[in-house]
Design a protein that fits this description.
The chain has about 290 residues and is α/β, with parallel strands linked by helices. It is about 45% helix and about 10% strand. The chain has one domain: Aldolase class I (TIM Barrel). It contains twelve helices and eight strands. The model has no long low-confidence stretch (mean pLDDT about 95).
Length: about 290
Amino acid sequence: MAAIGGSIVALVTPMAENGDVDWAALDGLIEWHIASGTHGIVPMGTTGESATLNTDEHLAVIKRTIDVVAGRVPVIAGTGSNATEEAIHQTQEAQAAGADACLLVTPYYNRPSQAGLIAHYTAIADATDIPLVLYNVPPRTACDMQADTVGELAGNPMIIGIKEACGDANRVAEIRSRVADDFIVLSGEDAQNLQMMDLGAQGCISVTANVCPAEMAQFCERYLAGDRDSAAEIDARLQPIHEILFVEPSPTPSKWALAELGKIQGGIRLPLLPLTAAHHDEVRARLKAVGALS
């Protein structure tokens, strides 16, 4: 497995207008990402609408992604759940399918304690044999995994990293001070990617990479090669994209943008809706400004 880092796309799940998964479009997106230099793929994360796919669909998307990628870049399967047994099941299935690692969001809605988080992730690590990446996104889950908790979990050899999306870039420094040098920290907030990498993140799991994969790959490559000034220039150009892709609940803007680019159909599942017309012109204008749309 290649090292996990750089620009890792939080991949959308392409759907037909009726909401069925569009498998041909999924294959095409994967090939586009690999050709564009994307360094890793996360199927069935938040951006993949994991909350509205049933378990069979969820696992089928993961397996299809692994098959199409065919080892060319790491596949980090989203297998988190607010039910520990379900997270174990999905992680075991992803492992059997050949995923390189699994991304596990903190249990949502339940609002477990920090001790509950440690027990949850330890149970998953004990029941599987695949590298695990923690995922902290309290604005969506109402559960904030603290740096001390990450530090304790990092002592488990199966837990290799974290996607941090708490909204405070300084959390990266707090985590780095509590973990070994080889523990992977990834930005989960595109608007904060540069700041988080300055504080020790090794890359990002990115929504923006869905629509600007080459630019996001170049940003990460240049930063990790020591060319911060060039990376900062790319980051500044992409900030308007980072912003507009959250003008409505994600992945609504990303899926609309990809449909404009001709990469997918416009399907999205309730309770999410297609992007409202009031935002169409601004999304188009920002995509054109960075050269993503002619």
